[in-house]
Amino acid sequence: MSDPSLASFEYLEKLPGTTFNKLYEQPSTALAIFRRMLPHLAKTFVMTLLYMSKPLPLADLDEWVEPNSQRERGDALSTLSRLHIVAITAPSRDNPQHVSLLPNFRKSLRYALTGGGNHHSFGVPSQDSDPDVTIEALDEYATSQWEGILHYLVHSVGGGRASGKLSESVTTLLTSGDLVRRPGSGPGAHGITKSGFSFLLQEVNAQVWTLLLLFIENSELLGMNSVEVLSFLFMLGSLELGQAYTTTTLTESQLHTLNQLVDFGLVYIPESTPTLFFPTRLSTTLTSDATALRSVGAGFDAAIASRGGESQGFIIIETNYRMYAYTSSPLQIAVLALFTKLYIRYPNLVAGKITQKSIGEAIRHGITADQVIAYLNTHAHPQLHKTPAALAGGPVLPPTVVDQIKLWQLETERMETIPGFLFKDFQDFKEYNDCSKYADEIGVLQWKSDGKRTFFVTRHEQLRDFIKSRKAREAAK
Amino acid sequence: MPRAIRGVLVKVDPSIKAIIVNIDAENHAFIIEDLDEDHLVIKENMVSVLKGRIDEILAAVLTVSNPNGAESDSDY
């Protein structure tokens, strides 16, 4: 998937239908899933179906879709049914297929949009507030907690020198999520792991989700109710920054979660008033869309700039692969050291070179060339933006370097693997042709051979239904 | 009725595919279906094993492949 934070939602798709049913009892969850996870066409479907009293014949739904957009339609419907939002009746001879929203989701989304019900699902704002807690203070708190976690990861590269201020539960979580290995936990096992490396290069929002999913998986082991934890997280996403909320309406699992989130910097609990909690920018943007994501970054830049830190761009890349980075932050230097060979370090500058070896090393650690390039791009020095090519709307980084990094990756990554299902042994060419065409329309086809009457798809559920309904139609003739 | 088989589609260069076919020839533990000259379907649980084997073989075959010559460590 193109958006790294969307990848985190693959976890959700693996949950069983009963879990979804319980999740959708909370209006905030229904709204968050609707806002964050659905393609535009699927949103339109949901909105149209929302106030319909009877199931809609699938054929009527098809009339809203332009004939040449069948792929988008299939994609939207498959996402909706995988997330257990719509139910499509099984096809039979005398009853055409019908589509309808599942009752729990419909009820919750109606509540979420129009208000009503007594569910506390959007948090209970508290009348009392704490004058000391300003938005700036919350930003600073979130930044320092989050950077603490990143520092811990980065320092484990340099030999396990932990910063010390991180709580035990967070380090345990990072270890169990295989982002770092504790020294001595196995032969050669020491410091940061592959997944830890790619974690470091992700966007903040994606990082937060990665950590939260780890936490959810862990909480299941501790006997906590993952549904309650999940719906609590979705609730956090709908809270307002700078507003105080009360903890008295929360369940025990949710209180435990809250304490953990304090360590991550997602919420802040003032010491004087332990029954109040304040969501920080990290949590209020959990379920917002891409534009709000950028404002997380903007929020952090503001926080860093106000503390007198460096401004955004600090890296200069020359066409001869030399790299100069104007920074003194150990975090940034450590990240750069993941994929460059550093030679010199001055008080405010590190200089190094991007080599085949250093990129190869990074790729072996699970970092992709695209991640490296994206990192360099977002942190490019303003001077690079002033080159004639960049001013004309061209690339900011020297194209030779970008191409070379990609070529180096191709040299090490010789295999592309796609998990899925191979379909073969069709009765006749017509059956093969219909099925492979359908697979292409719904966007799951990866490879096909007309000669062998064989094709490969990434998902088989819809195709299985298609084959069955096709069989039924054939039999009817 | 068509059959569906779970597996992993692998896209590779013909040269690498030859190596995979060679590895598989030992005990047929990897390949489910040989599709065409650059596509294969292999067993899901064997992907990482296979990647490791290929890296080993390539490391043995391609001893020196550094077009930049010796890493120019001395130019600072």
Structural description of this entry:
The complex is a heterodimer of chains A (477) and B (76). In chain A, the strands form 5 sheets. Chain A has a 4-stranded antiparallel beta sheet, with helices on one face. Chain A has a 3-stranded antiparallel beta sheet with strand order 1-3-2. A 3-stranded antiparallel beta sheet of chain A has the order 6-8-7. In chain A, helix 9 (135-157) packs across helix 17 (330-337) and helix 18 (356-364) packs across helix 22. Chain A is of the alpha+beta class and 477 residues long. Chain A has helices spanning 4-7, 10-13, 17-23, 27-37, 40-50, 58-63, 70-82, 103-114, 135-157, 168-176, 194-200, 204-221, 226-236, 252-264, 281-284, 290-306, 330-337, 356-364, 369-378, 382-385, 388-391, 399-412, 429-441, 461-476, and strands at 56-57, 86-88, 98-101, 180-181, 191-192, 245-246, 267-268, 276-279, 315-317, 322-325, 341-346, 349-353, 416-424, 445-449, 454-457. Chain A folds into 4 domains: 4-114, Arc Repressor Mutant, subunit A (Orthogonal Bundle); 135-284, no CATH class; 315-412, no CATH class; 421-476, Alpha-Beta Plaits (2-Layer Sandwich), CATH 3.30.70. By secondary structure, chain B is an alpha+beta fold. Chain B has 2 helices and 3 strands, in the order βαββα. Helices cover 38% and strands 25% of the residues of chain B. Chain B has helices at 14-27, 47-61, and strands at 3-11, 31-36, 39-42. The model of chain B is unreliable at 67-76 (pLDDT under 50). A 3-stranded antiparallel beta sheet of chain B has the order 1-3-2, covered by helices on one side. Chain B has one domain: Alpha-Beta Plaits (2-Layer Sandwich). Strand 13 of chain A pairs antiparallel with strand 1 (3-11) of chain B, so a sheet runs across the interface.
